[in-house]
């Protein structure tokens, strides 16, 4: 399974202003959440976003359009650490976050970011340690719960992963990544209907969760634990249930192209009923055979 790292918008705006963002690495495992939406620490990514919101509100009410308040030294240091992480300089980012952690040892946002960097380096033991510290210091931190789920997923402990993802969406039902992660885990356990329910909720929260392919996001792809064709067929079925014929046809085609022979079952599956007459779906399930050649062969007479 490949995943993208999800960064807070305030952090993205900050990074875009300073340098071109490289494409994020795609790693095995579900999506990892970064921004601490529940943590009001002054140097966190959410604080940067809050500053931008405050600046916007001030500009809308003040004709002078004043600049946002200056950043504190701690905020500047965290910004520098964030940029190191975006540049994939993970050991340096860890050192920078740990320097800040000495001043705020219970900051769940910093603990979570350190965990992400360790996970990017493949050190799941350290990543899990810091995610657990983040949850311990903020039991309402949905993103750290989600990230603990990604650790269990990477270890093929799918039942435990699902528990973490469920906790994450209970705390914050707007995290589409946690729903999609749950779907991956259910799929790995061969619980297809549960996977569809999870993918459906992810799409309802973020219609582009499976389609984002930009410089600021990347792609979510299934690989390794289940045949890619089954994953794409499951997505096709999910979009069919939602009545989205275009996406259904797209993933049906991907399923077929991956060699998943059961994609033709969609023709008789009631879940596809609402999209079955769509020409795009018909073209995948009932392709028109090529017309027979009308050319004739002309033989020369023997001399």
- Give start-end ranges of low-pLDDT stretches: 1-29, 36-62, 213-224
Number of strands: 4
Q: Please, how many domains?
A: 2
Q: Under CATH, the topology of the largest domain is which? A: Serine Threonine Protein Phosphatase 5, Tetratricopeptide repeat
* SSE ordering: EEHEEHHHHHHHHHHHH
Number of helices: 13
**Rg on CA atoms, Å:** 24 Å
What percent of the residues sit in helical stretches (DSSP H or I)? 55-70%
Describe the structure.
The chain is mainly alpha-helical and 303 residues long. The protein folds into two domains: 2-50 and 73-226, Serine Threonine Protein Phosphatase 5, Tetratricopeptide repeat; 227-287, no CATH class. It is 56% helix and 3% strand. The chain has 13 helices and four strands. The protein has a two-stranded antiparallel ribbon. Strands 2-4 form a two-stranded parallel ribbon. Helix 9 runs antiparallel to helix 10 (192-205). The longest helix is centred in the N-terminal third of the chain and has 17 residues, at 45-61. It starts with a strand and ends in an 18-residue tail after the last helix. Residues 1-29, 36-62 and 213-224 have low confidence and may be disordered.
């Amino acid at each position: 399974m490949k995943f993208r790292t999800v960064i807070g918008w305030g952090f993205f705006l900050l990074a875009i202003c300073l340098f071109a963002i490289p494409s994020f690495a795609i790693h095995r495992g579900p999506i990892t959440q970064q921004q601490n939406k529940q943590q009001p620490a002054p140097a966190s990514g959410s604080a940067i976003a809050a500053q931008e919101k405050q600046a916007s509100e001030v500009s809308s009410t003040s004709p002078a359009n004043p600049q946002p308040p200056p950043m504190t030294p701690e905020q500047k240091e965290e910004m520098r650490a964030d940029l190191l992480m975006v540049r994939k300089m993970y050991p340096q980012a860890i050192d920078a976050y740990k320097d800040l952690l000495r001043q705020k040892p219970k900051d769940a946002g910093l603990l979570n970011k350190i965990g992400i960097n360790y996970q990017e380096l493949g050190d799941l033991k350290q990543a899990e340690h810091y995610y657990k510290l983040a949850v311990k210091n903020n039991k309402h931190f949905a993103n750290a719960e989600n990230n603990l789920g990604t650790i269990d997923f990477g270890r093929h402990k799918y039942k435990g992963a699902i528990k973490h993802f469920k906790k994450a969406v209970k705390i914050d039902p707007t995290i589409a990544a946690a729903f999609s992660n749950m779907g991956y885990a259910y799929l790995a356990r061969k619980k297809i209907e549960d996977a569809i329910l999870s993918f459906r909720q992810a799409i309802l929260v973020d219609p582009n969760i499976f389609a984002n392919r930009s410089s600021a996001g990347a792609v979510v792809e299934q690989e390794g634990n289940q045949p890619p064709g089954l994953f794409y067929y499951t997505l096709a079925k999910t979009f069919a249930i939602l009545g989205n014929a275009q996406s259904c046809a797209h993933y049906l085609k991907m399923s077929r192209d991956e060699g998943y022979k059961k994609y033709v079952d969609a023709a008789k599956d009631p879940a596809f009923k609402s999209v079955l007459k769509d020409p795009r779906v018909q073209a995948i399930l009932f392709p028109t055979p090529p017309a027979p050649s009308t050319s004739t062969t002309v033989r020369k007479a023997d001399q």
